Protein: XapX domain-containing protein
Organism: Halonotius terrestris
Amino acid sequence: MSWLLPTLALVTGLVAGAIFAFLNIPIPAPPELAGVMGIVGLFGGYKLIQWLGVGIDLLEMLGV
């Protein structure tokens, strides 16, 4: 896995966060660690199901 994209995303997030703080406006993300960990957990669960190779295509089932 290339670390370039995650590194660029982290740097972009840090710069954007610094700008939001400097301008004293709320960030468009959970301001608490619990909210951030919820997002990390959501991503982890998604990747786990992909790794296990299980799941259904809900859109196909609904005919969308």
In short: Residues 32-64 form one domain. The chain has two domains: 1-30, 32-64. Residues 57 and 63 are 10 Å apart (CA to CA).
